[in-house]
Amino acid sequence: MEEPLEGQTAVVTGASSGIGAATARALAEDGADLTVAARREERLEELAAEIRETTDAAVAVVPTDVTDSDAVAALVEATVDRFGGLDIAVCNAGLAIDEPVSELTDEEYRTMTGVNVDGMFYTARASIPHLVDSEGHLVFLGSMSGNHPRPANPVYAATKWWTRGFAVSLQASVGEEGVAVSCINPTEVRTEFGSESGSPSKEAFEPGSVTEPVEVADAIAYAVRQQSPNSITSLDLYRRDKLSHF
Ligand SMILES: NC(=O)c1ccc[n+]([C@@H]2O[C@H](COP(=O)([O-])OP(=O)(O)OC[C@H]3O[C@@H](n4cnc5c(N)ncnc54)[C@H](OP(=O)(O)O)[C@@H]3O)[C@@H](O)[C@H]2O)c1
């Protein structure tokens, strides 16, 4: 039986860890070939080797800093050159530096906005012409913090409000050209998220208490399986008790 993404090509940013790595595995299992991107090349090579061993997918590794617009453009071009087109772009790379706004340094502020805002824009901008050609999917990693206030980190929250606003406005902009734009909004996920300012979420939360990366990857795989004319424009993947406590 043909896999749902057979013959399709994906690019996943932030694939060296957490949700991005799980998404790369999920898309490959669904039949897509893909390029995995992040800064840590060794991690990407390990992931690519694992995916090649466990699926029939072809995997390219392109080390990329998403805050570098030329590097992101080269990442997308390398993917199109290698695979002949682009059907799915997952704008996933992101991070949070938890400091009160009054104590956040310029550098910390620029790191968060550089990755979470500029990186999302650069990846979308480079991908859209190819996604118009393929009538493909553009996926953004938002957050519950992009739907509600996050007192612990207003700048991180604002980057996710930006992402959601960008995604829904882009859907309005490129939907008539056949592109589906999705924003996936999880609550806590057990990954390396949070490492920049303390313990990673995979250590802060017990297994079973919050979402696992593979569960977010399943949501992304569901979004990109949608065929024209449908688009999952927004998908909130919340812990069941989250709205009771926030
Ligand atoms: N975990 C959560 O609780 C949670 C909840 C809601 C939303 N999210 C969102 O989900 C996305 C993925 O996060 P995660 O939880 O999987 O965290 P993670 O395990 O820390 O992964 C973050 C990924 O982003 C990459 N990255 C960071 N800076 C980069 C840069 N300048 N250029 C390229 N890649 C960069 C990292 O790779 P390198 O360091 O190798 O570059 C890594 O692969 C983020 O957008 C995050 O905001 C996470």
Q: How does this structure look, described?
A:
- This protein has 246 residues and is an alpha/beta fold.
- It has one domain: Rossmann fold (3-Layer(aba) Sandwich), CATH 3.40.50.
- Helix content is 45%, strand content 13%.
- It contains eight helices and seven strands; from the N terminus they run E-H-E-H-E-H-E-H-E-H-E-H-H-E-H.
- The chain has helices at 18-29, 41-54, 69-83, 106-134, 154-174, 201-204, 213-224, 242-245, and strands at residues 9-13, 33-37, 59-61, 88-91, 137-141, 180-186, 234-237.
- It has a seven-stranded parallel sheet with strand order 3-2-1-4-5-6-7, with helices on both faces.
- Helix 1 (18-29) packs across helix 7 (213-224), helix 3 packs parallel to helix 4 and helix 4 (106-134) packs parallel to helix 5 (154-174).
- The longest helix has 29 residues, at 106-134.
- It is globular and about 50 Å long.
- The model has no long low-confidence stretch (mean pLDDT 97).
- Bound molecules: NADP nicotinamide-adenine-dinucleotide phosphate.
- NADP nicotinamide-adenine-dinucleotide phosphate (NAP) is lined by residues 13-20, 38-40, 43, 64-67, 92-95, 115, 141, 143, 186, 188-189, 191-193, 201.
- Residues 8-187 form the Ketoreductase domain.
- Keywords: Oxidoreductase.
- It comes from Haloarcula rubra.
Task: Write the topology of this structure.
Blueprint: E1 9-13, H1 18-29, E2 33-37, H2 41-54, E3 59-61, H3 69-83, E4 88-91, H4 106-134, E5 137-141, H5 154-174, E6 180-186, H6 201-204, H7 213-224, E7 234-237, H8 242-245
Parallel strand pairs: 1-2, 1-4, 2-3, 4-5, 5-6, 6-7
Helix pairs in contact: 1-2, 1-7, 3-4, 4-5
Bound molecules: NADP nicotinamide-adenine-dinucleotide phosphate (NAP).
